Amino acid sequence: MRILCALLILLLASALTQTDASSRTTDDVEVQGVTRPLFEYRLSPTVDEEVREIMVRPGDVVEAGDTLLRLRDDEARLGVDLLELRAGSTLRVDAAKAAWDVSTLEVQESRSAMDDDAIRAPEMRRIELRAERDRLSYQLALQEQRETALQLARARATLARYTLSAPAPGIVTAVNVRVGELPERGAPVIEIVDTSRLRIEIGVPTGSVDGLVPGDPVTVAPETAREDSVLEGRVVFVSPRVQAAAGLPRDNGLRTVHVEFDNPGALPAGGLARVRFSG
Question: How many CA atoms lie within 13 A of 262 on its CB side?
Fold first, then answer.
């Protein structure tokens, strides 16, 4: 009986140990990291032209679509004006249609005359060919009208490249060009940061992220906020790779975890924050 009780106690202890090991994931794990803006924009023109006008300066709050900067666009604007004039005119189409209508009428009259032997077959053939030519000229005029509409759309798209607009809401953090300068292609001339949502990339010991998946809740305590200020965030990425780290066993290195959280208090990016994972 004593032996049976001892075996039962051992089995119960083993089961409790396994349950505890399998459920131990991220309880009471806290890691410090640096906050970063979720969205940063470094904008540069795609057209080689000098700056005509700058509408913003560092510290300005912008909305998506706001105009930030304009380049000199005189030639591109003239191209748009010319194509708008052509696209808005129906003179060529109307003239071609009128010529075809006249040719069609001549064909009808000539066929009646041919029935009365007043016109010969060769002449009738020439009249029919002129009508066919005028019909094709009308079709060509319609095609050219459609082509002009497409050319106008392309010219407008090109003209839009001479204006730099905000891709999203944010705060202008840098203006790296002046009026009259020719920006270097690819070099950012205006930088915008959106701090309405922040992210943190941290290295967490492998044993502390077992079972952690994207969508799991976390709490974030920014050091620049009040001591009792705690924000709610979410895990968005858990790296499948383990990286060796000093002070940790080789089989228990660090795994990169990405966390995102809303920033209603407009805390500045770049500050330290403590991230707590809860099992």
Answer: 3
